[in-house]
Amino acid sequence: MLRHAVLLFALAGCVLGAKLPLRRVVPTGPARSLSGAAGRIYGGQDAYSGQFPYQVSLQLSLLIIRAHNCGGTIVSESTVVTAGHCVMGLGTYYAVAGELNLKKDEGTEQESKVSEQIAHPDYPGGLTVSANDIAVFKLSTPFTLGTYVKAIPLAAAGSLPTAGTSAIASGWGSTPTATTPDILQWLDATIIDWESCRDLLDEAGIEDNPVVESMICTGPVTGGISLCSGDSGGPLVQNGELIGVTSWAITPCGSVGSPSGFTPGLRLQRLRRTVHLTALCQRSNKRMTI
User: Fold this and answer.
1) Which end of the chain has the least Cβ crowding within 10 Å, N or C?
2) Domain shared by 77 and 138, yes or no
3) Where is pLDDT greater, at 31 or 286?
4) If we measure between CA atoms, which residue out of 4, 66, 1, 14 comes closest to residue 251?
């Protein structure tokens, strides 16, 4: 019988792109199997150049290896928002914007070394599924904003999306045929209210159900449509605003009855203060803003 898990999406770039250890639980129902959508992020489709100019690939360099590790979202020329569990203590991160195909140089890319990784102060670290799974990455060199590289505004403070509405998620996460697809993938997601999301995890036999009211969950949960490992930290966008940061899902990806989970953008409010205090502690004369 297959076991199910709440999966933090990041890939362990320091281990040749292998998946991070899973937080496994014992299922109560029958074994699940993956549904179709071969060759895509589960149920998604190829993006085109410039379609998601706020998306970045966070690439981890360790020794002689450099690989896509997490997604991220540009919120200013020098600031990227990502997941808290994407923070790494080893290696060097590079944020690549204007990217479409990881295997090709299209002439639209911009690259900047990540100078600081600041997780939410209430994120417990490790692979814990948490409502505070969010981080700010500061860049050593600001991006030049334009057609292929743009910042996206944050959703209004205190707002959460309405159940049943649509949002767009994107990333280079695993597909049924590739651990890391070459071309950026995207899908239309449907917002699920948190009570229904929590019920779905209960039905899946997830112990220590992590879903709380402040999380954002998406479907559809009919099977074959899902985010997966490598999508971590990527954007969930609605009405041209960043409403969430990709955080977790149930494995196997694309299983029937399995939602995807996001940290709401409103969690950036506390993180703003943390970034500012960090700057003060470093005796900076210029406030870091996001």
Assistant:
1) N
2) yes
3) 286
4) 4
- Asked whether residue 114 falls in the same domain as residue 234, the answer is no
Q: What φ, ψ does residue 281 adopt, rounded to 5°? A: -65, -30
Q: How far is the C-alpha of 138 from the C-alpha of 79, rounded, in Å?
A: 5
> Is 85 labeled as catalytic in the residue annotation?
yes
Rounded Cα distance, 81 and 265, in Å: 9
| Catalytic member of 4, 68, 85, 120 | 85
Residues 251, 5: Cα–Cα separation, whole Å: 5
Q: Return the CATH number at 127.
A: 2.40.10.10
Q: Is residue 205 situated within a structural domain? A: yes
Q: What is the pLDDT of residues 232-282, one digit of tens each?
A: 999 999 999 999 999 998 888 888 998 999 999 877 766 666 555 455 444
What whole-number distance in Å separates Cα of residue 86 and Cα of residue 137? Answer: 10
User: At 122, which amino acid appears?
Assistant: D
Tell me whether residue 288 is in a domain: no
* Model pTM score: 0.83
On whether the CB atoms of residues 250 and 210 are closer than 8 A, the answer is no
Q: Indicate the pLDDT class of residue 226, thresholds 50, 70 and 90.
A: confident
For residue 248, the enclosing domain spans 4-14+27-46+154-267
Contact assessment for residue 274 and residue 289, using Cβ atoms and an 8 Å cutoff: no
Look at residue 273 and tell me if it is in a domain. Answer: no
* SS3 category, 161: coil
* The one catalytic residue among 4, 68, 78, 133: 133
Does residue 285 form part of some domain? no
Q: Provide the number of structural domains found in the chain.
A: 2
Pick the catalytic residue from 232, 247, 258, 260.
232
